[in-house]
Amino acid sequence: MAANSLLGFGGRRWSAGPVAFAAGLCVVAVAVAIARGEREGVGGDFHVFWQAGRNFATGAPLYHGDVPGARRFIYPPFAAMVFQVLAIFPLRLAAEVLSVINLLLLGVATYLTKRIVARTPPHQAAGALPLVLAVVLSLVFHLENLNHVQVNEVIFVLILLGIDAHLRALDVRAAGYFVAATALKITPVFFLIWLMLRGRPRAALAVPPLAIACVVAPLVMRGPATGAAELAEYYHSFLEGFQHGQVLTDQRVQNLGALVYRMMRPAETPEHLQYVYLPASERAAALTYQAGAAFLLLLFLVNLGLLRARGVAATALEFSTVFLISHLLSPITWKAHLVTLLFVFYTFLLLRPAVLPAPLRIALIGLWGLIGVSGLSGRDLVGRDAYYYLGGYSVVVWAMLLLFVAGVVLTQREAVARRPA
Questions:
Q1: Most confident range, picked from 144-153, 163-172, 240-249, 380-389
Q2: pLDDT tens digits for range 5-42
Q3: SS in 3 state form for 276-333?
Q4: What does the alpha-carbon distance between residue 205 and residue 60 come to, in Å, rounded to a whole number?
Q5: What predicted TM-score, i.e. pTM, was given to this entire model?
Q6: Cα separations in angstroms, 174 against 159, 164, 169, 210, 340
Q7: Are 88 and 56 in contact (CB under 8 A)?
Q8: What is the largest CA-CA distance in the chain?
Q9: pLDDT tens for residues 34-79?
């Protein structure tokens, strides 16, 4: 072997320079993860997961009796059962381990994103630039996830694995990945809806028993009485408030409800800023939010129904609309949740304006601008004031809204052009 090259997987030769660079990145990543994990303590996001895992393992309550200063656990009992793995280690060591995993999963998510998009129509070859831009512009959300030692990279990779399994006709496996992601955090339920409407019958039939298993497993491990009580407590302590119209207006929340209420109603914000530019009554804001959510959900379902009726294969644009609707209609969408925009950004950055009619071409260029603004909205990049205003005026939400509508339009346009696959 030549001195300046190394033999890689599958016989591919890797030069010493890239290998050394990758090794250096790994060392830096581990150092960053360890530094972040060492700052973890009671009251942090990660402490919620770690404590829930410990409570599940020891039989302590999941949804009440928190230690002083701790945040509430707002995830399903299945998540607490899984988080037992984290509770094996002391708090800070566990945070370091998850931080390293998050960094590794960013690489896995990038690889899966490229692989999935390449497998979907129109199967276009692409250079490295769109993917690099997608990673760079979504990095603000990945760093937010890393900074809070959150589990959103895990959820993202589970969804990508589900999509990849669907594309390879591994139907039960695809259902398993989507069900597991939803059992950890409710938001991926839109991918279950997608699978039921657009997947093959075998996948749709696999969803109910897998979902029941994720509900029953914690019941068996905690005991039927305790498990049933915790399911009810989970609903009352978290889901019920949003079901009755509760909306979070913190500028870090980027979903449809936050956009409407910050736009129309004064709010108590930690930064003591107001973002009202269409002032209205509480009832008007509530009706606007409900009507907007109903319209987006109907548009999502009609889009899937038309695609199924036309018998066309799923595309990256279609998957992007599922990612987007899950964030827009989720009751809580913190910026750390938006790691999935890596996939969305890559899909839209791959589109070629030259093949679109003039109105869509102009719209696409505008969407690229919004993607750029969203990706460069980090506090360290734009400064404190701009950071607050970009979040408070819901720039990222507007970007997701327009990307969702554009995704539906372009998906239907491609479906008409391609006809049955």
A1: 163-172
A2: 443 434 445 566 656 666 666 777 777 777 777 777 78
A3: CCCCCCHHHHHHHHHHHHHHHHHHHHHHHHHHHHHCCCCCHHHHHHHHHHHHHCCCCC
A4: 35
A5: 0.92
A6: 9, 8, 8, 11, 18
A7: no
A8: 74
A9: 777 777 778 788 999 999 999 999 999 999 877 777 788 999 999 9
Q: How many CA atoms lie within 13 A of 283 on its CB side?
A: 0
Beta bridge partners of 7: 13
- Two structure tokens written together for 211: 């979902």
CB-based contact 316:116 (threshold 8 Å): yes
Please report, for the chain, the start and end positions of each structural domain, with discontinuous segments joined by +: 245-421
Non-local (6+) Cβ contacts of 418 within 8 A are 121, 312, 313
Is 145 in contact with 102 (CB distance < 8 Å)? yes
Strand partners, 253: 334
6: β partners: 14
Q: Please give the radius of gyration of the chain, using alpha carbons only, rounded to the nearest integer.
A: 22
